[in-house]
Amino acid sequence: MATITQTAPAATATARVLSLDIARGITIAFMIMVNNNGAAAYHPFTHSAWNGWTPTDLVFPAFVFIVGASIVLSFGKRFERGVSKARIAISILRRAVILFALGLVVNGFPHFPLHTLRIYGVLQRIALCYLIAALFYLWRRDAASKVVAIVVLLAGYWILMRYVPVPGFGVPTHQIPLLDPDRNWVAWLDRKLLPGRLYEGVRDPEGLLSTFPAIATTLLGVLAGLWMRTERSRQQITAGFLAAAAVLIALGELWNLSFPINKKLWTSSYVLFAAGCSLLLLGFLYWCIDVKQWRRPFNQPWIVFGTNAIFAYMLSELLASTLWSVHVRGREMLWTWAYTPFRHIQPPGVGSLLYSIAYTAVCWLATWPLWRRRIFLKI
Hints:
By secondary structure, the chain is mostly helical.
């Protein structure tokens, strides 16, 4: 990572779309919370077991969506400075490689078992989505090409998962149930490519094939970024966000009737529904912050996470691995020791929630000095 120090806070604020930074910060805060639940988390703070969704299932696609919107805004500044496409392409590739490598660090820390090291992961998926969407935007900056790509990705994924026979199992809805957990194209291909390295043994929630519809999520974010850069008024931009959010949510729910919303497979209906929810959040924040200028109550604490998102995420994951790997008092895990004060809180769900909040607060406190000194760690 390279370190960039900002010495003019006011200039920084005006150079960025604050609502996007704060949306990113909210997403990272919630991601840290739900990834570090206690022993009895309430249902909304856990992932859906398979089909369906919870608020937790909307966190990851929201971050991927924001990555897409950020591509447009960050590249716009480079284009204005006259940076060549070749230099931007090299920086895109470099950033994607570093993100992917950081994901491998997260997966392997602290023991790094190379023979079983998981290759897929959250940062790895972000890296691939960023790489494809950023290069595509660098090549063509129009909205129409992005719409066509989104349609092709979502329709193609639906056709594959719905109609194409899964080797050794048969045709979905005929020989096997649609989106059967183990007998689908995503799980089958991952078992062939990376046996023994999958998160759930026989499948992986960040599998190779399901990365393609995730790229569509990123491209929907790119469209949101393009909309923010139009000559329309901020009120019109807000209205466009909210209208598009309603349409996407409705389309996602409609498609859900025949192609269920499923986070672990990143189904096409899930892409539309989750992007609609992301737009709803972004539209609300854009109206509050960039239209109404209600900045003070919204800036903190989200801006701390939002401007150092990857650092905060890495910190939370490595800290969690440390808590589960280090033992105290003989065989007791450090996590067990840390959770003890919350274990006796009743009802158990409250104790679990308070632990999640406390854990997120620790990560925020570790990230805050960077914000305080206007140090933003970029890849």
